[in-house]
Design brief:
Largest sheet: 8 strands, parallel
Helix content: 40-55%
Number of domains: 1
Structural class: alpha/beta
CATH superfamily: Aldolase class I
Shape: globular
Strand order of the largest sheet: 9-8-5-4-3-2-1-10
CATH architecture: Alpha-Beta Barrel
Distance between the termini: 41 Å
Length: about 300
């Protein structure tokens, strides 16, 4: 089928990206999110209400969100793994919660010591709080192609988890290739099964670039009509299961691809790149984005 006319990008750099980087200041996080919104991004993960013991990089999420000056049409979301986190997210004023599980039983057992079904059941109070306060809930499914513990993950398992999350009340499910082992053929096999059973507008893709396949996988998803893509400015966030490897696909690279295909994003690529340069300076690292680096060399 034809490419989507428009693609919605969900910017995850300020949460999924920064939680895998060294800590930066609250002011620097606020400046990043404000700059991302200024570049035209309308869906931004702004923080995570998780235990500061386990994810200290996200300990100031309440202060970050309180300090933002984004336009009213920018939708902010936050990761809410339990009801305590959801209550804090509600206090922050975000209008979207994010919950997560995996398509691999080995992954959920290893990480949170329960089955996939049990991990979803743990979100019941989060969903109840969300419904009572008119908050949308987005589901994330990790390891949709491969798992660091069990290896290959079958598409049928991904379908089962997606169905559970959608029946649970999630408005959308983001398919995460957590360790970045996906290839276009694997993505096609997975999406062929999912799209035969789930409406296209209920699915998003979240590819990591560990093996350099993220853009190729995104292109395949676009060919199959997927119109929601998760990405992180400057490619923030490494892969915790492959030391030194790239993590999230860079938003700059995704936007450049989409523009080249004639797909509307509403994003100013140069302003986006500058937001990435600013946070990378704070992190004392270079962007993990070929487009960002190319633009920076032109501006030097």
């Amino acid at each position: 089928m034809a490419y989507p006319e428009m693609v919605r990008i969900v910017e995850v750099g300020a949460r999924d990206g920064l939680q895998n980087e060294q800590s930066v200041s609250t002011a620097q996080k606020i400046a990043l999110i404000d700059a991302l919104a200024g570049a035209g991004l309308k869906n931004i993960e702004a923080g995570a209400f998780v235990s500061p013991k386990w994810v200290p990089q996200m300990a100031d999420s309440l202060d970050v969100i309180a300090g933002l000056s984004v336009p009213s049409d920018v939708e902010l979301s936050a990761l809410t793994p339990n009801v305590k986190g959801a209550e804090l997210a509600l206090q922050s004023g975000v209008k979207e919660f994010a919950i997560f599980t995996a398509a691999s039983e080995a992954f959920t057992q290893k990480n949170i010591n329960c089955s996939i079904s049990e991990s979803i059941e743990r979100f019941i109070p989060v969903m109840e709080l969300a419904k009572a306060n008119n908050i949308r809930v987005r589901g994330y499914v990790s390891c949709v192609v491969g798992c660091p513990y069990q290896g290959e993950v079958q598409p049928e398992q991904v379908l089962d988890v997606c169905k559970q999350l959608l029946a649970f009340g999630c408005y959308e499910v983001s398919l995460g290739d957590t360790i970045g082992v996906g290839t276009p053929n694997k993505v096609q096999n997975l999406l062929s099964l999912l799209l035969a059973n789930i409406p296209r507008d209920k699915l998003a893709v979240h590819f990591h670039d560990t093996y350099g396949q993220a853009l190729a996988n995104i292109h395949k998803a676009l060919e199959m009509g997927i119109s929601v893509i998760d990405s992180a400015v400057a490619g923030l966030g490494g892969c915790p299961y492959a030391k030194g490897a790239s993590g999230n696909v860079a938003t700059e690279d995704v936007v450049y691809l989409l523009e080249g295909l004639g797909i509307y994003t509403g994003i100013d690529l140069e302003r986006l790149a500058r937001a990435g340069w600013q946070i990378c300076d704070a992190l004392n690292k270079a962007p993990v984005s070929k487009v960002s680096l190319a633009l920076k060399s032109q501006c030097a």
